[in-house]
Design a protein that fits this description.
The complex is a heterodimer of chains A (54) and B (243). By secondary structure, chain A is mainly alpha-helical. Chain A has one helix and no strands. The longest helix of chain A has 45 residues. By secondary structure, chain B is mainly α. Chain B is built from six helices and no strands. In chain B, helix 1 runs antiparallel to helix 6 and helix 2 packs antiparallel against helix 3. The relative contact order of chain B is 0.16.
């Protein structure tokens, strides 16, 4: 499955591994904070609307 | 229609909400094939062997590391001159992406340098300016986190960004300014006007696709994170009104 990387297997795999971990972590963290802020804002807006209707 | 209309947070949210899914799909269909092509289907270089495969990660992330800083410089300048909140928040949203891209470029450069140069690190002009740029990214993020008042935070971080841009410029042109150090000249000369491409198409084509993929990833993350920052600003305002 893996291409033949010869004696450079460690540097090549560690470069790709570091990129996948760091870039993947950034994407996941960005998605999570987007989801959290959307949810919190929706709750606050709902609360504000309910208050203004009272 | 003027570009300044998108400085309005409501218009920005509406437009970015429509664009975001398209950017996400474009990123996936560009970046994944580029990395698969580069890793699995490119030959070894006659001198560097299989380490040439690191180019498809190292060059695009280094390219982004510098250009995200320029983008932050421009948006910070817009904030300082025109006081558009979306531009300050876009700079804030871009900083962690730039920091991660710089870190990936530094790590992949070190693991590439070790077998080819015989050392993980050397105090070469390009490497050193890149490390300083990374420190500026971290300082910029820390400064935003340290100041509670949003306008003051935007002012101070913009000034810090202006100062750090010197190192972004040095990183970009270090290999041209100083004829010393281990780092080679640009690997993507077609990105510079008038430059001649010296790379074989078998390496150059996946590299260009990878550059496009990483650039699209940046645009997608920028839209997503700027939207989050705008929402967070609104959350702070609503909570302050409640208190």
């Amino acid at each position: 499955m893996l291409p033949d990387l010869g004696k450079y297997v460690v540097p090549v795999l560690s470069a790709y591994g570091a990129m996948i971990i760091l870039a993947g972590g950034l994407v996941l963290a960005s998605l999570k904070s987007a989801k959290d802020s959307k949810k919190t804002l929706a709750k606050l807006e709902q609360k504000r609307k309910a208050k203004s209707n009272d | 229609m003027s570009i300044w209309e998108f400085a309005n947070p409501v218009r920005f949210m509406r437009l970015s909400g429509r664009l975001l899914p398209y950017f996400a799909v474009l990123t996936a269909i560009t970046l994944i094939p580029a990395l698969v092509w580069g890793f699995f289907f490119t030959p070894d270089d006659y001198r560097q062997g299989a380490t040439i495969k690191i180019i498809y990660v190292h060059v695009p992330t280094a390219f982004l590391a510098i250009n995200i800083y320029f983008m932050m410089f421009v948006t910070s300048l817009i904030w300082l001159i025109r006081r558009h909140h979306v531009s300050a928040l876009a700079a804030k949203a871009a900083a962690p992406v730039g920091a991660i891209m710089t870190l990936i470029a530094l790590i992949t450069g070190a693991v590439w340098g070790q077998p080819i140069w015989g050392t993980w690190w050397v105090w070469d002009p390009r490497l050193t300016s890149f490390l300083i740029m990374f420190i500026f990214y971290v300082g910029y993020i820390a400064l935003w986190a340290a100041i509670d008042e949003p306008e003051k935070a935007a002012d101070l971080t913009s000034i810090l960004c202006m100062i750090g841009s010197v190192f972004a410029i040095v990183s970009r042109y270090a290999v041209d300014f100083w004829n010393q150090g281990l780092h080679q000249g640009t690997s993507a000369p077609l990105l510079r006007p008038g430059a001649e491409n010296q790379m074989a198409p078998v390496f150059w084509q996946p590299l260009m696709l990878s550059l496009a993929g990483f650039f699209l990833l940046f645009l997608t993350l920028l839209l997503l994170r700027t939207r989050t920052e705008i929402r967070n600003r609104r959350i702070t305002a609503l909570r302050a009104r409640e208190a």
